[in-house]
Design goal:
Blueprint (H helix, E strand, L loop, with lengths): L1 H29 L8 H21 L9 H29 L4 H27 L6 E2 L1 H7 L10 H7 L4 H19 L1 H11 L1 H6 L4 H27 L3 E2 L7 H11 L4 H15 L12 H5 L1 H16 L20
Antiparallel strand pairs: 1-2
Helix pairs in contact: 1-6, 1-7, 1-10, 1-11, 1-12, 2-3, 2-4, 2-10, 2-11, 3-4, 3-10, 5-10, 7-8, 7-10, 7-12, 11-12, 11-14
Amino acid sequence: MFATIIAFLHRAIMQGIPLLFGSTGEILTEKSGNLNLGIPGVMYIGGMSGVIGAFVYENSLSSPSEANAFLAVIIPLLSSLLGSLVAGLIYCFLTVTLRANQNVTGLALTTFGTGFGNFFGGSLIKITGADVPSVALTTTSNFFRTTVPFAKTTGWFGDLFLNYGFLAYTAIIIALICSYFLNHTKGGLHLRAVGENPATADAAGINVERSKYLATCIGSMIAGLGGLYYVMDYANGVWSNDGFGDRGWLAIALVIFAIWKPNMSILGSIVFGGLYIAFLYVPCALRTQELFKMLPYVVTIIVLIISSMRNKKENLGPAALGLSYFREER
């Protein structure tokens, strides 16, 4: 029984890491007043960009044994960050510079990101001539999935806390850094001011456009790492079109569950990861697995209702969330 609980928690954490990356990036974005519903697409773009970088690197090798650990990690990592950055810049240009509707732009970005991933994924599958509709990048994935050497020798403690790739720990560190930045730095105060009342922030000398651009682009890069983690670590380096599922939307739901606090997202990601795979541990639940996968959304709705009833300002999103800022109206 104890071994089953440890295995469940380990799998829940791995399932939750992509959500943690996505929610942390979205929280940083929303604190600036930008509601980026394109996070699922950004995560797709980040994952596929990393796959392209890994594919190019692996095909430059004459044999897997020649792979260099640093290059095998840094090339997909930089490719993922670059792809996610471009997606963030596209969103910012449309919503901040051109003041397009944020909801429509975000949904369009999600559609574009999914199409981007599926198009290049299909192209890579044709190039490899694989018999199955997937691309396997085992050599690169092995470096991403490398764990602490003594993890296997420390029993349940190692399985629960040490048996993960470096990106899992990176997600937690980024969430803690973002939490500290938002709550204990001058830059974080300025960013929250922009999200609450951009006109007042502008009058105080804060560059609203720059704040929105930086927060959204950095948030997109963080979210893109969630897609990279899913492919290179969770999926063992295998890319399958539409294999990412609804994890991008779960990341957005996690933002509400965590009441816009990055440190709360760490615990929330584990909860969501556990709820998402609960059907695997409940007898006779496979026939109703889609109902079980609804649990994270149901919990989010309950949290949203409770937060609204309490009406505490610190538990609500930024006041100017989703609203375009027109300086002429100040």
